[in-house]
Each structure stands twice: as C-alpha cells, then as structure tokens.
C-alpha cells in the first residue's frame, strides 16, 4: 500500500485571530504550526502533503514551504474557492465564504488516491497523533473503517475565550456513534460548560472531542461527494450553510456505511484561536524543543 497522505486545511480566514495564522511563525526560529505537523507526519511514515489554501495566499504558502520540504516529502497544493464543486444553479451571489471542512476535503479528491489524514493548519496535534494515524492508515483502514484521533475535552480549551468542539458519543468498541457540535464551551469554576444559545450544558472533562484530526480510506471521497450533492439543493437558499466533516461522518454512521475508530493518540494539543493564544503556543513549542522532542532547527 502507498504511504498515506497528509491533507492540511489551510484556507480558513482566521476572523477571531485577525490574521493568516496558517503562515505565522510560532516556533523558536519562526516555524509555523503546520511545520510541526509535517515534521511529525514524515517521522510517522507519510509520503505526501497536500495544502488546501485560498487563492490569495497560495504563492506565499509555496514560498514558505517548498524550499523547506524539497527532497523530504512530496508536496501538492489545491485552491478552495467559494464556488469549488458548486454547480451554477446552486451558487449564491451573497455567500461570503466556502462551505467548511467537508467541502475543503472534497476539493482534494483529484490529487489523493491513497489513505489520508486530515488536520487543521492552526492546531498542534503532537507526535503521538501522527504515529497513531500512520499506523492505522497503513495497517487497518478499509472502505468501511475510518478513524479519528480523540482528545479529552479538558485538554483542548482556551484560557482566552470560548471554543467550539465536536463532542463525541462512543460505543463499547470505542467507535464513534455520533458527534454534536457544541459552541461557547469554557471552564466555569470546576466545571466545563457549553452555553449554546444560553442553555447551559455541563460536559464531563474526559469526554472525547474531535479536533479535526481524521484518517480516511480514499473511498471517503465518493461517499462525501454523494452527500455533498444532496446537501447543495437542500441548502441553496441558506448562505450560511456549512458542510463539515463531522456531518459526513455522522451520515455514514447513520446509514451504516462506515465505522469510525477513535484512536488514543490525542496526548498533546494546543492551538491558536485568539491573539492572546500566541504567547501560550510560543512557550509550549519552546519547551518541546528544549525537551528534545524537536531539533533546534526542524529542517536542518
């Protein structure tokens, strides 16, 4: 089997952060968060990386990453636009942004033919996550068996504001039964509370959540495309509709078309949602370098 591919979702606008956090330096020598994910993926046996980007940052992303990755891993780029894969009759002139993570993944269907992982560009997932993904995608993945790296909710909060997380329900085999997107999650005293529309819900600290760290058999593209084609006519008048990966996963589970194993590689996570998160991330990366988890310069 071919080496797995790493698909990086880097087309987000970063409205709460106020800038292109995908290409901002956070490491001791200006390394982006993406670089740590790629470094860990290479160590875990991945053979290709595909960037999903907006047209306006495409050349900048190429300038940053191609010189560093030359000779280390195969690299490809895909542009996600507002109307990518959207037939003329479903295009909304008032829509402001693309349809979300599921849409972004589908944009890469022409350049990926092997098992692949999907991650966010602005999240640090930890080497254990890529080790777990690499093993699963090389040894266990099937047309009806995909995976997701699970993280305990208590470990994936921000001290600088609320977050949204995909809260998972699992069966006795630690497979995903379903996922519910919970918004406005934050610590309140000794509890973790989601105040979606001011209706408070207390969530157990060790509840597994999705940080958009997935592993898929390439047959996922065909199934996602089928669901996408049903989604478009149903949402043609909703300019804020989103086509998310968890929605596709939930549909496949409900239709009994696939199972999704939750892997235990979610040991370390940090990410950038708010500007105030940056010094926390910078300090965390510095500690990892000092501990020897990463060389002083990643690519030397």
UniProtKB/TrEMBL annotation:
Family matches, as SUPFAM superfamilies: Nucleotide-diphospho-sugar transferases (SSF53448)
InterPro entries per the UniProt record, alphabetical: NTP_transferase_dom (IPR005835), Nucleotide-diphossugar_trans (IPR029044)
Nucleotidyl transferase domain ranges (all copies): 29-163
Classification via Gene3D superfamilies: Spore Coat Polysaccharide Biosynthesis Protein SpsA, Chain A
Name of the protein in its database record: dTDP-glucose pyrophosphorylase
Annotated Pfam families: NTP_transferase
């Amino acid at each position: 089997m071919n080496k797995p591919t790493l698909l990086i979702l880097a087309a987000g606008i970063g409205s709460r952060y106020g800038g292109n956090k995908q290409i901002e330096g956070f490491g001791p020598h200006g390394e982006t968060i993406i670089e740590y994910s790629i470094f860990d993926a290479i160590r875990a046996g991945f053979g290709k990386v595909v960037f999903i980007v907006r047209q306006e940052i495409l050349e900048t992303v190429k300038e940053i990453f191609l010189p560093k990755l030359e000779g280390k891993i195969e690299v490809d780029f895909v542009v996600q636009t507002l109307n990518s894969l959207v037939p003329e009759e479903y295009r909304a002139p008032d829509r402001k942004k693309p349809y979300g993570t599921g849409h972004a993944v589908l944009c890469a269907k022409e350049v990926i033919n092997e098992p692949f992982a999907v991650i966010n560009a602005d999240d640090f997932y930890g080497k254990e996550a890529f080790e777990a993904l690499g093993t699963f995608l090389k040894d266990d993945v099937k047309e009806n068996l995909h995976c997701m790296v699970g993280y305990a909710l208590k470990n994936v909060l921000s001290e600088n504001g609320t977050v949204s997380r995909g809260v998972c329900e699992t069966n006795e085999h630690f497979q995903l039964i379903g996922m519910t997107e919970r918004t406005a999650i934050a610590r309140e005293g000794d509890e973790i509370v989601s105040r979606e529309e001011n209706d408070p819900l207390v969530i157990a600290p060790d509840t597994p959540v999705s940080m958009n760290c997935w592993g898929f058999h390439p047959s996922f593209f065909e199934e996602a495309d089928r669901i996408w084609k049903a989604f478009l006519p149903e949402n043609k008048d909703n300019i804020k509709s989103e086509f998310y990966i968890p929605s596709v996963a939930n549909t496949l589970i409900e239709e009994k078309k696939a199972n999704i194993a939750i892997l235990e590689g979610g040991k370390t996570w940090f990410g950038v949602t708010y500007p105030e998160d940056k010094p926390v991330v910078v300090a965390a990366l510095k500690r990892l370098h000092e501990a020897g988890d990463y060389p002083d310069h990643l690519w030397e």
